[in-house]
Amino acid sequence: MEANPNVITPEVLAQGLSFSQYMDQVREAVAQHRTTGLEQSRLLTDVTKNNVPIMERTYQTPLLPELVDLIQHLPVPMVWLVLTEGWCGDAAQNVPILASLAEKSTQITFLTILRSEHPAVMDAYLTNGGKSIPKLICLDARTLQPLGSWGPRPQALQEAILPLKKSNLHILETIRQAQQISDADKGQSLQKELLTLIPAWVQAAQKD
Q: What InterPro entries is this protein classified in (predicted)?
């Protein structure tokens, strides 16, 4: 496993917010002309405001029936801990889908923590050396042993969006085009990856 299981302690989980609490946190930040977490700027505030309707929309994304069936028959209890921030476009596209899915299972506890407030957890789950979010960390709820992780975006979208991030486009234009790519995908790539990942996480839990 890529991270020390001791990084995510009961104390860390106690600071986690449910998805509805996280949404309240984001909306409250927008009302105060801020974003979430410790990093603050006008740009982050503006994109956070734009992300709220995206999050509300993606929470309504239709879920694949086979994926819902899979999580409704999980044989082990899990914690899905998600590193996120209100300003993150990828989080706005993906975290609501993860939350909506988790709500379909009595075996999944879904919690969010902010990247800027939990550097040790973020540093344990880097993506190619970078602090990319969102990052979903799946834990065995019985032991807090990490079973696997996902993020910051599905591989199919990663291949489409990475060239944008390396281009000379203005940051706002990069965000706009990345959102268009994610919108067109309609959460399909994420859900298809979870169809493969979740059985692997179950298998890892059953080996312990």
A: Thioredoxin-like_sf (IPR036249)
| C-alpha closest to that of 113 among 11, 1, 2 | 11
In a domain, 191, yes or no: no
Which CATH number is 112's domain given?
Answer: 3.40.30.10
pTM: 0.94
Give domain status of residue 170, yes or no: no
Cis-peptide into 134, omega within 30 deg:
yes
Distances (CA, A) of 188 to 21, 39, 80, 97, 165: 26, 31, 19, 10, 22
pLDDT in tens, 171-198: 888 888 888 998 999 999 999 999 999 9
